[in-house]
Every structure is written in C-alpha cells, then in structure tokens.
Amino acid sequence: MSSPTIPHQLIEKIKQAQHIVVFTGAGISAESGVPTFRDAQTGLWAKYDPLELATPEAFQRDPKLVWEWYAWRREKINHVKPNAGHLALVELAQQVPQFTLITQNVDGLHQQAGSQNVIELHGNIHRIKCANKQNVVENWQQLDGSPPECPLCGDHLRPDIVWFGEALPVDAISNAFAAAEQCDVLFSIGTSSLVQPAASIPLEALQHGATVVEINPNPTPLTEQVTFSILGQAGQILPTLIRQLTA
Ligand code: APR
C-alpha cells in the first residue's frame, strides 16, 4: 500500500505552529479493533441501537441491560491496544510548543498510548460513578449482571460516560473551545462530525483563523470547510505525517 500523500504546505504549517489541537473520534480507535460508535453492533447486542442504550432513560428503564452493555464494551476494550495513530499523536505532541488533545472517545486508548492531559468530552468507560451523587467510585464489586450499589448512598453505580441528552463536563468543553480558539492548527481525526457540541470545535478553530485538517476515509459534514482533507486511515496517515515532519 503506497504511503498517503501529506501536502507539503501542511508540513510547513505544522513546523511553524506554536499550538496544535487534535480532536479525535471513534475512527482513531478503529484500527485497534474498537468498533466505531456507528458501526453495526455484533453478537447479542446486534439487535440494540447504541443510540437507544446510551441514554439516562434506558438506564432508568433497565439499569441491568445498560450496565451489561457497558461491561461487554469494557471487556472488548480491555483486550485492545493503542494503534500507530495513537502513538503518532504522542510523537506529534513533542514537536510543538503547545499541544492539546481533545477526544470524544471513552476507551482511554490515548492515555494508554502515553498522551497527557487528554480532554475527555464524553467521559471514560473505565471510570464508574454514582448515578445519584455523580461522584467517581474507585472500588466497586461486580456481583452479578446488575449495576453495583454506591458504597455511600446505595444507589446504582453507572459508567462515567456522557449519555445522549446529558450535559458535557463543563471544564472539558470550555477548555476544548478555548484551545480551538487559540490554536494555529487543528486536526479533526476519525469523527463523523455529527454530534454537537463537540462537532463545533473544528468550526471554532476555523473561525479563529486556524488551519484545519480532517483525516477520515470518508467525507463528513466538515470536509467541505476544512483547509486540508486527507482521505484515509489515521493509523497510516499519522505515522507518515510524523516521518515527513521529522525527516
Ligand atoms: N481512521 C480515521 N477515521 C476512521 C477510521 C480510521 N481508520 N475508520 C473509521 N473512521 C471514521 C468514519 O468514517 C467515521 O466518520 O471515523 C468516524 C466514526 O464516526 P462515529 O462512529 O460517528 O464516531 P464519532 O464521530 O466519534 O461519534 C461522536 O457521538 O456516537 C456518539 O458519544 C458518541 O463520542 C461519540 C460521538
């Protein structure tokens, strides 16, 4: 497979950049074997629409079903590793004075690859919190398929993930938009650019004069507006970009 082509002008922009933001979605974890959010569900979960399960209403209606779905996803994620795309972003961070990584992913693979200070817009599947008090609970027992009880108040525990209809963590979203406003270059990688408010982050960067690069094998609603659109897989494009940047 020939290496993807990285525009020379983009390499120059990166070399001159003082602050680079990278904004990722499920596509950057696809090459690790983590199905993207809108990929067809498999096995016994095939009959469920993730958009139906990842909601407070679903958890209210059937906490055991939602808890088991996340336990299934957590188990799958526990068996995968960061891919070349995640690792290339760790290297990119070392090539620029200021680097901000913002992710919509909940799999923790950026941190596992070595990325620091990751802004998690939608939470983290490995973190569990009290459904009532919202405090993160470090030690909990998985007894049977049902959600464990909070040791402090006895209510259900739930994944520390932002469900559809829930507000994003205030600090995360404000830090993300602040970085988008200040950066020189923003990469939008592996996201369908469909879910707000996250999908507006690259537009914020564009409006503040940043160079915006999209890396995705498929076009998205953002593609028409970006400075550079590189069609392809992040796990191939990002290592090539790093090689050309450091050549
Ligand atoms: N490299 C780069 N991009 C890829 C790759 C790859 N190897 N494989 C797939 N993609 C792209 C797809 O073309 C698609 O545009 O990744 C994108 C994945 O889109 P979604 O599944 O919609 O995931 P995402 O954009 O992260 O969803 C945003 O909405 O679904 C909710 O909370 C969930 O965080 C998620 C948010």
In which range does the helix fraction lie?
Answer: 25-40%
Which ligands appear in the coordinates? Answer: adenosine-5-diphosphoribose
Q: H/E order of the elements?
A: HEHHHHHEHEEEHEHEEH
Largest sheet: 6 strands, parallel
Radius of gyration: 19 Å
> Structural class, judged by helices and strands?
alpha/beta
Number of strands: 8
- Approximate shape: elongated
Question: What does the model show?
Answer:
The protein has a six-stranded parallel beta sheet, with helices on both faces. A two-stranded antiparallel ribbon has the order 4-5. The two termini are 21 Å apart. It has helices at residues 8-16, 27-30, 50-53, 56-61, 63-78, 84-93, 109-113, 170-182, 201-207, 234-246; strands at 19-24, 98-103, 119-120, 123-130, 157-161, 185-189, 211-216, 228-231. The mean pLDDT is 93. Strand 2, helix 7 and strand 3 form a beta-alpha-beta unit. It is built from ten helices and eight strands. It has 247 residues and is of the alpha/beta class. It binds adenosine-5-diphosphoribose (APR).
In short:
The protein is of the alpha/beta class and 247 residues long.
Task: Describe the secondary structure blueprint for this structure.
Blueprint: H1 8-16, E1 19-24, H2 27-30, H3 50-53, H4 56-61, H5 63-78, H6 84-93, E2 98-103, H7 109-113, E3 119-120, E4 123-130, E5 157-161, H8 170-182, E6 185-189, H9 201-207, E7 211-216, E8 228-231, H10 234-246
Parallel strand pairs: 1-2, 1-6, 2-3, 6-7, 7-8
Antiparallel strand pairs: 4-5
Helix pairs in contact: 6-10, 8-9
Bound molecules: adenosine-5-diphosphoribose.
